[in-house]
Amino acid sequence: MAISSSFIAIVSLALLLGSVNAQLSTNFYSSSCPKLFSTVKSTVQSAISKEARMGASLLRLFFHDCFVNGCDGSILLDDTSNFIGEKNAVPNRNSARGFDVVDNIKSAVEKACPGVVSCADILAVASRDSVAILGGPNWNVKLGRRDARTASQAAANNSIPPPTSNLNQLISRFNNLGLSTRDMVALAGSHTIGQARCTSFRARIYNETNIDSSFANSRRSNCPRTSGSGDNNLAPLDIQTPTKFENNYYKNLLQNRGLLHSDQQLFNGGSTDSIVRTYSNSESTFNSDFAAAMIKMGDISPLTGSNGEVRKNCRKVN
């Protein structure tokens, strides 16, 4: 039987794509950097011991990295005289933090195995460790990413869903990245830890009606109505346990106590209400879905093989 050249081309392409995907693996550094996991975890543990909020900040960095041209460490690049990175994009300016902790992790990893582990992979491991240290699930992180030599402020402005997003916008943005609606609701549970700035929730606590009145009043005490006043004042995304990773976030949504507009959109008479109910009733279901969704998010457009580089300093290209 004759095999057409087009069939051979399709098989070759499939093998090529398979080999690219196969380059991300949980044992990627098992021989080249056997102390990677213990080195990262001890540095993350130290940072969280100093400031519990840092776990949420490192997790957020990974989200904001992956959502902009894939998980490639681009968010970590500093601006230079001839290069504008992502740190001053609207979703990151005055709010993305933890870069010094990433520097500390990188220098510790460089001592253990110089020039081997990418900053993109360090971010992936640090976000997993942050969740686990704060009481959340653990999972096997797939590794083998390389670091981008460029970044895009415009892509950061357009790719990261703002706190004003409605449900359809959230679903669409996640779907575009290969993440399902259920993945989106699970990943939103990262808001069970961390803090938000007054600018992110001011409109919700003063203008929206699907909000618990006592909750809104308590938040107003630290977030004045006037724009420009108290903009950087912080409030916990999960009012009960902002430094413990569990399912209280979803329980709050059932009571109209979502801090951000985008949070409460997940439970507002729409298609995701039932998923929120499931996670509020079963922490184990949330944990397993969250871990699976984090692994999927980590698969977004990684640079592998000869693409990108392994940065010596996470803030600048080699």
UniProtKB/TrEMBL annotation:
Q: Which amino acid positions bind Ca(2+) 1, per UniProt?
A: 65, 68, 70, 72, 74, 86
Gene3D superfamilies tied to this protein:
1.10.520.10, Peroxidase, domain 2
Q: Where is the active site?
A: 64
Q: What class of enzyme is it?
A: oxidoreductase
Give me the ranges of the annotated region Disordered.
Answer: 217-237
Site (Transition state stabilizer) residue list = 60
Where is the protein situated, by its record's location annotation?
A: Secreted
Free-text remark on how the cofactor is bound: Binds 1 heme b (iron(II)-protoporphyrin IX) group per subunit.
Q: What is its main location?
A: secreted
GO CC term, one of those recorded: extracellular region
Sequence positions that bind heme b: 191
UniProt biased composition (Polar residues) = 217-232
Q: In this UniProt entry, which cysteines form S-S bonds?
A: 33-113, 66-71, 119-314, 198-223
Q: Name one GO biological process term.
A: response to oxidative stress
Q: Which UniProt keywords apply?
A: Calcium, Disulfide bond, Glycoprotein, Heme, Hydrogen peroxide, Iron, Metal-binding, Oxidoreductase, Peroxidase, Secreted, Signal
Q: Give start and end of each Plant heme peroxidase family profile domain.
A: 23-318
User: Where, by residue number, does Ca(2+) 2 bind?
Assistant: 192, 238, 241
One matching Pfam family is peroxidase
InterPro entries recorded:
Haem_peroxidase, Haem_peroxidase_sf, Peroxidase_pln, Peroxidases_AS, Peroxidases_heam-ligand_BS, Secretory_peroxidase
General function of this protein: Removal of H(2)O(2), oxidation of toxic reductants, biosynthesis and degradation of lignin, suberization, auxin catabolism, response to environmental stresses such as wounding, pathogen attack and oxidative stress. These functions might be dependent on each isozyme/isoform in each plant tissue.
Instruction: Report what the protein is called.
Output: Peroxidase
Gene source species: Quercus suber (Cork oak)
